[in-house]
Design goal:
1 helix, two-stranded parallel sheet, little secondary structure
Length: 107
């Protein structure tokens, strides 16, 4: 996991997998578990071994209607065949310039 800005989640980055190939670099600012996760499992580190499992913060549901009391939504549109092979998006009307779309700032 590299180059993400995550904040305000109690614990923003958590290593909960036993897979030593998971890595964390350049994600910030963030609260990490275990503490110093990016130092323990940096993407450019070699032979660091297993990282101790972290712990996510408890989640408090927002006030309002309980999740199990929310009515079932109406039928949602879907793909004709969700298992169909992907089709490349070619011959679209015009070129997309990603730089013309403003991105949110980290404030």
């Amino acid at each position: 996991m590299t180059g993400n800005g995550v904040t305000g989640n109690g614990v923003d980055l958590v290593s909960s997998a036993a897979d030593p190939s998971n890595c964390f670099t350049g994600n910030g600012p963030s609260t990490q578990s275990p503490d110093g996760l990016e130092g323990l499992a940096a993407c450019d580190a070699t032979g660091a071994g297993r990282v101790p499992a972290g712990r996510a913060a408890g989640v408090q549901a927002p006030p309002g209607t309980a999740f199990n009391a929310v009515p079932v939504p109406p039928a949602q549109p879907s793909l004709p065949d969700p298992q169909a092979p992907a089709v490349p998006a070619v011959d679209l009307p015009g070129r997309v310039d990603p730089d013309s779309y403003p991105l949110p700032t980290g404030s």
